[in-house]
Each structure stands twice: as C-alpha cells, then as structure tokens.
Amino acid sequence: MSHDYVNILGVPFINTSFAEMESILTNHIDKQEKTFVVTANPEIVMYAKENKDYQKIIQSAHYVVPDGNGILLAANMLQKPIKERVTGFDLTMSLLEEGNKKGWHVYLLGGREQVNKRAAENIEKDYPGINLVGRHNGYFDWEDGQVAEEVAAKAPDIVLVALGFPRQEEWITTNYHRFSKGLFMGVGGTIDIISGEMKRAPEFWQNLKLEWFYRLLKQPSRWRRVLVLPQFVKQVRQSRKRD
Ligand code: UDP
User: Fold this and answer.
1) Quick check: helix, strand or coil at residue 184?
2) Which of 186, 190, 215, 230 could form a Cys-Cys staple with 168, CB 3.0–4.6 A?
3) How far is CA 172 from CA 56, 209, 211, in A?
4) What separation in Å is there between the alpha carbon of 111 and the centre of ligand 1?
5) 115-122: which pairs have CB atoms within 8 A and are 24 or more residues apart?
6) Where is average pLDDT lowest: 100-114, 132-146, 155-169, 210-224?
C-alpha cells in the first residue's frame, strides 16, 4: 500500500491517522518484518538539517511519524495538513497493549539503571501477556557491540530504544544489520514516563498544545531546545516561499 507523505525541511513524514499507523506497525510485527521507526519533532528536524549524517539516518527509516504539534503546524503552513499527531509515547502504549494480547517479546533499552529497571517492572506488572526478554540501561560502551549482540540473540518483536536523539537513531542504524526481525523505535523520554520518574503533560496542557512548555517547566535544562522552535517556524515559512 502506498502512503501519503509530507516533506518538512527534508524529513518525509507519513500522513496517517494514529489508528492507521498502529495497524501498519502491528502488521509488520505480525509478519516478523524488521522495521525502523523515527518519532520526530521540530528539534529532530532542525538537527537533521544541520547534520547530514543524521538526516540520512532519518531518511533511511521506514516511517517517520509526527511526534509534536510543531510538525502539524508546519504541515498546515505548507498547506499539506497532517491527519493526526502520532507520538512515540502513544504508539509505545498501544503497541504494549497489542503485545499484551499477542504475547510479543519486548526488549527495553535506555534510561538510567533505576529508570530502566522500574520501567521494566511496570511493563511486567501492567502487561502480563508481554514477554520482557531483556533490558539494559542506556549508559554503556557502544564500541564492543555487546548490548546489540544480546538484542540480536533474543530477537524480540519490539525494541524500545530510549537513548535520547540523535543517539537512539544512531544506535539503531549502526546495529541494524545484526537483527533478523523486530520493530526498532527511538522513544526518548517515554521510558522515564513508564518508570514513573516523569509525568506526561496533563491533558489540559496537551489540549492547549503546550506540552513542550510543561516539559520545560519540569526540566528547565531543556530551555536550549525550545529556542529551536521559532527558528523551525521561520525556516518552514522560507521553504514554502521556495516551493
Ligand atoms: N539516555 C540514555 N543514554 C544516553 C542519553 C540519554 O539512556 O546516553 C536516556 C535518558 O536517561 C532518558 C532518555 O534517554 O531516560 C531520554 O532522554 P532525553 O530527554 O534527552 O530524550 P529526548 O527528548 O532528547 O529524546
């Protein structure tokens, strides 16, 4: 099936509803097809624009989904509206639900040790049908490839990679050749939420499209990242004029 895409500053976003995306990914997992998903927000798009290697990584993904209201705003500015926001958090939750019914094998990579451990415990408690085949914190030596070998040996159906961007996407592409199957998705701060370490922005903030502001209040160290947003809007506006 061919899909509709919206190109935002060089990043091709798939344009589906959340339910459609969920069913596309479920289908790949059921068929044991190896799949790479990027959940991208304006920070990622801007970073990819400046870093060609990272841009290539993003473009090599099977699907780039719009994880951020800024992406929907940009799509509207380009007069190519995207149907719905598809966040890494929501996708993770719905895939865990599905996996709970189907007995999928899941590997949890990333986060600080305590966060990773607690997130794993919560998944085992809340989704007893899932087989959590392994976990590892996100602070390890990439060079020796040991963690990647472990993931490859366990051949999970889903590998949740929470190393923050751009590391999570880099780790996935660097090691992709080792894996025979599985859905590989960079999920950033989702692991902090599953572990209970961080709270997702309440709906009130989400509805006002101010989730980014809520996160900034909770983690003031993120201020630098927010600065990228006006720049993002400006560049999308400029790209519209060029087209
Ligand atoms: N993280 C990690 N290894 C690293 C850097 C980050 O495991 O080398 C984890 C971090 O502990 C956190 C998650 O990645 O649990 C998401 O980090 P961040 O909020 O920076 O992600 P982003 O929003 O950039 O995707």
Assistant:
1) strand
2) 186
3) 13, 30, 27
4) 6
5) 115/191, 115/192, 115/195, 115/197, 116/191, 116/195, 118/195, 118/196, 118/197, 119/191, 119/192, 119/194, 119/195, 122/194, 122/195, 122/196
6) 210-224
CB 104 within 8 A of CB 35: no
Q: Could you identify the atom of ligand 1 that is nearest to the CA of residue 109?
A: 7
State how many domains the chain has.
1
Per-residue pLDDT for 243 more than 70? no
**How far is Cα 187 from Cα 174, in angstroms, rounded to an integer?**
17
pLDDT, tens digit (0-9, with 9 covering 90-100), for 143-167: 889 999 999 999 999 999 999 999 9
Residue 227 CB neighbour total at 10 angstroms: 11
Q: Which amino acid is at 45?
A: V
- As for ligand 1, residues whose beta carbon falls within 6 Å of it are 110-112, 115, 138-139, 162-165, 167, 188-189, 191-192
CA torsion sign for 55, 61, 62, 64 is negative
DSSP assignments along 94-163, one per residue: HHHHHHHHHT-EEEEEES-HHHHHHHHHHHHHH-TTSEEEEEE-S-S-STT-HHHHHHHHH--SEEEEES
- Which of 192, 199, 216, 224 for a ligand 1 pocket mutation test, highest count of atoms within 8 Å of Cβ? 192
Q: Are 28 and 183 in contact (CB under 8 A)?
A: yes
Residue 218 has pLDDT above 80, yes or no: yes
